[in-house]
Amino acid sequence: MALTDILLKYWGFSSFRPLQEDIIQSAIDGHDTLALLPTGGGKSLCYQVPGMAMDGLCIVVTPLIALMKDQVQALNAKNIKAVGIYHGMSKVEIDNAIDNCVYGDVKFLYLSPERLVTDMMRARIQKMRINLLAVDEAHCISQWGYDFRPPYLRIAEIRTLIPNTPILALTATATTQVVEDIQEKLDFKDARVFQKSFERKNLAYMVFREEDKLNKLLRICTKQKATGVVYVRNRKRTREIADWLVQQKVSADFYHAGLTSQERDAKQDAWMKERTRVIVSTNAFGMGIDKPNVRFVVHMDLPDSPEAYFQEAGRGGRDGNKAFAILLYNKADIQNLEQFHERSYPPLKEIRKIYNCLGNHFQLAIGSGKDQSMPFDIHKFAKTYSLNTFFIYNALGFLEKEGYLASSEALANPSRLMFLVSNEELYRFQVANPRYDPFLKMLLRSYTGLFTEFTRINEEDIAHRNGVPVEKVKKVLLDLHNMKILHYKEQNQKPVITFLEERLAASDLRISKEVYGERKAFARKRMEAMIEYVTSETKCRSLYLLAYFGEKGGKRCGQCDVCLERNKAGVSTYEFNQVVKYIKPKLQKEKISLEMLIDDLDLNLAEEKVINVMRYLKDNGKITETGDGILKWRS
Ligand code: ADP
Ligand code: MG
Question: What is the mean pLDDT of the chain?
Answer without folding.
Answer: 88
